[in-house]
């Protein structure tokens, strides 16, 4: 007796969903190529020690571990950024020119949500170029242009500054647990709990007032910068705001300034982000469809110096979002021609099927038997019977003499439709 569990697999993809996913990935890939990115692929199995040695990455409990024959612990790739950075570091590409790379890869993570998939597809870019505002703006423009290509006309890219918030934490002298709690509360913009936490801490009034305002530092890009400049606590914070202002100026050159907003309380759960961070939301969808940022110090942990910026689309979630917005073209699952034949006409049927496939048609063949035939839906039906051969197309049945006559009739019917 087989257990029901073996039939349950939330990672399966139907024919229709696979067609949608292929359309989406083709669109994303085409846009990445227009910005000069080249595709790369890392191994599905990675060394567990790699992720253990990097701080600020996926929690070990979320990694799916396997043991190889030698007893070494491996993990199914839980993240793509770290393996690609590892590749660049191992190839000693420190002095190389700009490396714009993209990937389409599966990532594997345990989830506490039983409805969530352990396997997800990500499509993203990693740019191992200089750490400049100009490159940051180009990467953000690429993300926005890709969303436009997919058909979204109402979306927003929220931009934050990881180091701006980090400067604030340095001033507070908090414990690790207190920092973590404060980050979560600011991320959730939970004002009452922030005030409760601040009341329990011994910090200067000026700092406490500033922290209380951070959750409100979001919205129109320049308005937020102007408000933040009035309350910035030191020169480092003011420098971060100047870079954000320069970033916004360049985004205007790309004509994408209306698609971005600024959130200085934005925090990414990946601690390796060192500077600008961002996430993209589309209308009526509660989760971000893309996340990214700059991670200039990540390669330092792999004994290399490689500044970088990147982002990734959650492809499976993007499929759901496009479905919700009716952005997929009609998916054609019917095949072109069903070819049924009697046993005595097998040779003629196979030769005709080969000829039609050579012409680019999608052909399904099946031998007629005493058992009821149940072929897939098709535009045309060809029947090779013992004493005749027929083409059925849109309620019209016509006999044909040979392969050339069959092809002529099919094309003629197509023109008539």
From TrEMBL:
GO CC terms of this entry: cytoplasm
InterPro entries per record: aa-tRNA-synth_II/BPL/LPL, HisRS-like_core, HisRS/HisZ, HisZ
Keywords linked to the UniProt accession: Amino-acid biosynthesis, Cytoplasm, Glycosyltransferase, Histidine biosynthesis, Transferase
Descriptive protein name: ATP phosphoribosyltransferase regulatory subunit
Family: Belongs to the class-II aminoacyl-tRNA synthetase family. HisZ subfamily.
UniProt function note: Required for the first step of histidine biosynthesis. May allow the feedback regulation of ATP phosphoribosyltransferase activity by histidine.
Signal peptide range: none
Residue ranges occupied by any Class II Histidinyl-tRNA synthetase (HisRS)-like catalytic core domain in the UniProt entry: 17-317
Chief place where the protein resides: cytoplasm
Miscellaneous information on this protein: This function is generally fulfilled by the C-terminal part of HisG, which is missing in some bacteria such as this one.
Single Gene Ontology BP annotation: histidyl-tRNA aminoacylation
Self-association and partners: Heteromultimer composed of HisG and HisZ subunits.
């Amino acid at each position: 007796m087989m257990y029901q569990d073996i039939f349950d697999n939330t990672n399966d993809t139907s024919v229709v969903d696979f067609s949608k996913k292929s359309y989406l990935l083709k669109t994303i890939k085409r846009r990445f190529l227009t910005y000069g990115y080249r595709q790369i692929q890392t191994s599905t199995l990675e060394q567990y020690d790699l992720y253990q040695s990097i701080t600020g990455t996926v929690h070990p409990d979320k990694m799916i571990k396997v043991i190889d024959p030698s007893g070494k612990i491996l993990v199914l790739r839980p993240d793509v950024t770290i393996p690609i950075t590892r590749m660049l570091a191992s190839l000693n590409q420190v002095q190389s020119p700009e490396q714009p790379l993209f990937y389409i890869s599966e990532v594997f993570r345990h989830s506490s949500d039983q409805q969530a998939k352990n396997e997800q597809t990500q499509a993203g870019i990693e740019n191992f170029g200089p750490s400049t505002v100009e490159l940051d703006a180009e990467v953000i423009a690429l993300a926005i242009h890709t969303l436009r290509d997919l058909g979204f006309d109402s979306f927003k890219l929220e931009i934050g500054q990881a180091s701006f918030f980090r400067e604030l934490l340095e001033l507070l002298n908090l414990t690790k647990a207190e920092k973590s709690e404060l980050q979560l509360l600011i991320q959730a913009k939970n004002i009452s709990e922030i005030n409760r936490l601040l009341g329990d801490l011994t910090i200067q009034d000026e700092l406490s007032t500033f922290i209380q305002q951070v959750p409100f530092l979001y919205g129109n890009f320049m308005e937020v910068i102007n408000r933040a400049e009035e309350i910035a606590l030191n020169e480092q914070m003011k420098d971060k705001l100047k870079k954000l202002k320069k970033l916004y100026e360049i985004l205007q050159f790309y004509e994408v300034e209306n698609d971005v907003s600024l959130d200085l309380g934005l925090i990414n759960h990946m601690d390796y982000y060192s500077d600008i961070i961002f996430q993209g939301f589309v209308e009526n969808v509660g989760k971000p469809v893309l996340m990214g940022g700059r991670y200039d110090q990540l390669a330092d942990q792999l004994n290399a110096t490689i500044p970088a910026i990147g982002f990734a689309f959650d492809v499976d979630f993007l499929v759901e979002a496009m479905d919700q917005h009716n952005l997929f073209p009609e998916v054609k699952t019917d095949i072109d021609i069903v070819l049924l034949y009697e046993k005595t006409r097998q040779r003629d049927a196979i030769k005709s099927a080969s000829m039609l496939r050579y012409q680019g048609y999608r052909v399904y063949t099946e031998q007629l038997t005493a058992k009821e035939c149940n072929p897939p839906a098709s535009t045309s039906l060809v029947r090779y019977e013992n004493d005749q051969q027929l083409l059925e197309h849109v309620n019209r049945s016509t006999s044909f003499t040979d392969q050339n006559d069959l092809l002529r009739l099919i094309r003629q019917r197509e023109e008539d439709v």
